[in-house]
Amino acid sequence: MAAPGGAKFPQAPLPPPGTPMWHVRDAKLSLGRWRCRTIGDHRFTDSSVVDGPIDTGDSFVYAYSDVDTSGHSILRINPALLPDTPPIWFVALPERNQPSPAISLVAFITKDHAPGTVISDPEFFSMAVHTSQQVGAIRWWIDSGIVDQIFVAEQWRRQHLGRALIASAQCYQVHNGWTPRLASNGRRTALGQHYAETALFPDRFAPLDDPAPPMDPPSKE
């Protein structure tokens, strides 16, 4: 997958679990956003945000973020992280009128937008795409970076969509200049716990202490 600006993802192996993930801000963009790269190596501590230009050589690049010619945020995740994952685009649903601002990214796989594009809710409702076509969603608190919920439609599981949602949310958080580290508290579903046990960054998952009910709708049977 090509990165914004024509850059390519270096042909580097996926770093071992626990390798620091840090971020380069290459340029300031409109609306407080940044053109960013997310790197996996030991040059900086985990979740560091540094201002470019910085030559990261052949280090693994987890993601790039930028804006397109229409002003939409574009999130590009390294395909090495997401084998067999369908290309997705997103609707951003901010919730700022509450004590702890939150946001959701809702994922779709239609061909209405280029992969990685983030559009607004009003834009979405002008499209001939129904909310029932979503393949997954992630919701988190902006200030703390704590993930509240992740949902993947049952027919799209086992295709790394959960990882795609987390990686995209992390990319979007840094792209907007927010807290650069997403993490999980001790409340998770059984599926969420399974993901935590195989995560690339296990230290970002607090021990499970509050099992949550499944997010799947009740069976009609």
TrEMBL record:
GO terms for molecular function, please? acyltransferase activity, transferring groups other than amino-acyl groups
Q: Where is the N-acetyltransferase domain?
A: 118-170
Residue ranges for the region (Disordered) are: 1-20
State what protein this is by name: Unannotated protein
Source organism of this protein record: freshwater metagenome
